[in-house]
Specification:
single chain; 191 residues; alpha+beta; QueA-like; three-stranded antiparallel β-sheet; three-stranded mixed β-sheet; 13% strand; globular
Length: 191
């Protein structure tokens, strides 16, 4: 089981169950898109009963997602590409949403990559889209995500959506309240 590099132990049999999302359908990721770990079939059922449409994407998390930003200027950092696919029926659901809530940073990158140019349509390919403060979102209206490592592209993406000041305040609160961070940690909803 490909656990993130900050989990400093060998994988265990329980990881094969716990480190997998209910959305998983195709092999290809080097790690689970961990924001999806917060969902169970019961939670998805409750979302549907509350009126939410559930649309899915195929995305394959790459090793580059764990690489810290090491450049002096944020703008000079480059991401490795990750492959994705959005089916036509799911793209239609997403276009019809009053607010498109992405589950995780890789989903945001997928949606924003697909939305470039002709709007959010069925598509597949590779994305190396790098999102940091100042980015203009075209598809994503909200995001559920975990608390990420400092100096990561993931944290910059969250800051681009929520605003750096709000993200720093949320992280201060999370540290003071002893929230769990990273893959098996707590999550936040960014509206």
């Amino acid at each position: 089981m490909p656990l993130p590099p900050y989990i400093k132990r060998p994988d265990e049999p329980l990881d094969r169950e716990r480190y997998q999302t209910v959305f998983a359908a195709h092999p290809g990721s080097v790690a689970a898109p961990t924001a999806g770990l917060h969902f169970t079939p019961e939670i998805l059922r409750q979302c549907r009963e509350a009126g939410a449409e559930i649309a899915t994407v195929t995305l394959h998390v790459g090793l580059g997602t764990f690489q810290p930003v090491r450049t002096e200027r944020v703008e000079d950092h480059r991401l490795h590409s990750e492959s994705f696919e959005i089916a036509a029926a799911d793209a239609a659901k997403m276009r019809a949403a009053r607010r498109l809530v992405a589950v995780g940073t890789t989903s945001v990158r997928t949606l924003e990559s697909a939305a470039r140019g002709q709007g959010l349509v069925a598509s597949s390919g590779e994305t190396d889209l790098y999102i940091y403060p100042g980015f203009q979102f075209q598809a994503t209206g909200a995001m559920l995500t975990n608390f990420h490592l400092p100096r990561s592209s993931l944290l910059l993406l969250v800051g681009a959506l929520a605003g750096p000041d709000l993200v720093l305040a949320a992280y201060r609160h999370a540290v003071e309240s002893r929230y769990r961070f990273y893959s098996y940690g707590d999550c936040m909803l960014v509206l």
